[in-house]
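Technical note accompanying the year-one report. For the benefit of new consortium partners, we illustrate the data format agreed upon in the data management plan: each record pairs a sequence with a structure-token string. No post-processing was applied to the example shown here.
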Amino acid sequence: MHSLGILLSGRGSNFVAIADSIDAGRIAGARIAVVVSNKADAPGIATARQRGLNALVIPSRGRPREEHDREVVAALKQHNVDLVCLAGYMRLLSLWFVQQFPQRILNIHPSLLPAFPGLEAQEQAFAYGVKVSGCTVHFVDEELDHGAIVVQKTVPVLDTDDEHTLGVRILEQEHIAYTEAINVVLGRDFEIAGRRLRRSSQKSEGRRQK
């Protein structure tokens, strides 16, 4: 049984999607071992407690990054977490934190990286006038929205869209993408060459079709 650790700072809609996928069997052989927030008033923490999950608040305000990171990592290791999933966690992880979980930290970003990293990605995409946007699940490294890409989902930008409607449709795809990415990583169904992540099952399927 794989143990997941969820880090969040807000409402945690992707956390809820992950929990729902586990309950429905779409992510097999996994459980959420702990949910951690750096904000005591994060709605996602209340949701985690309502679902009977271990939910911890480790405040970050006014604390050195390394001190806070070490407390979060200690909590994750205490719960024997195999995979860390960032679900709207508004903190840039230190290199030391990343090194504690090599290729075992996932983040989701509401754009087709490397386009529009950072905050308000949907607004950036809409303002730029792109015709296609989407979301990206990627491994976390010490740089912002930078690690190897695991899954991407595309979302067309409609002429009738505004930032809100585009964001809603991207979020729907985020929930699908995160479940798919977790299954890839837990199944070790990949190899990484440089920045490219290649799915082992897709490679095998390609060889059979030739």
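Partners are asked to follow this layout when depositing records. Confidence is low (pLDDT under 50) at residues 204-209.
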